[in-house]
Amino acid sequence: ESQLYLPLRPGCPEIVSRAQWRAAKPRCQKLLGTPVDTAIIHHTEGTACSSSTSCQRVVKAIQDFHQGPQRKWCDIGYNFLIGEDGRVYEGRGWKTMGAHAGSKGNWRSLGIAFLGSFGSRVPNAKAQAALRSLLSCAVRRGALRNNYALKGHRNFMSTSCPGQSLYDLLRRWPHFRA
């Protein structure tokens, strides 16, 4: 199964590649100037998933929606997505600017979305551990500054995202800044 994932760096989580979840090609790309100073957390407000197969389907459906007639975006909006299977799914990845927090946030952040709706519950322990590991990895590989700010989508736009329960959890994490 190891060939299904992007190569591991020491201390980095396994990241399910775009090829593995059968991503469509991006229609355009803007480079992200790294290291960025912010990690913006989202929830997808849709179906949660707890197996690799179901999470891959959910990620592909999100990309189809983002690239489809309603949004017409270049690609899936997030840099990474996290399922309750404990895996990280590559969205736009480390070097491409996302479409997740408007003009105030996209150019200076990594957008990370939990798959599911977290207004009344938090992501499970495996998903939370995957986020911690991804953030540490981002700092180690130079994609995210050491003194980064952890924020919710609502800190950039008028939205309830990433859900009240998840937002309350993030407020207790060391790098959180409103």
TrEMBL record:
This is Peptidoglycan recognition protein 1. One of its GO terms (molecular function) is peptidoglycan binding. GO terms for biological process: defense response to bacterium; innate immune response; peptidoglycan catabolic process. Belongs to the N-acetylmuramoyl-L-alanine amidase 2 family. Residues 24-163 form the N-acetylmuramoyl-L-alanine amidase domain. Keywords: Antibiotic, Antimicrobial, Disulfide bond, Immunity, Innate immunity, Secreted, Signal. It is found in: Secreted. It comes from Ornithorhynchus anatinus (Duckbill platypus). The gene is PGLYRP1. Residues 13-157 form the Peptidoglycan recognition protein family domain. Its main location: secreted. Disulfide bonds join 12-137, 49-55. One of its GO terms (cellular component) is extracellular region. It holds the Pfam family Amidase_2.
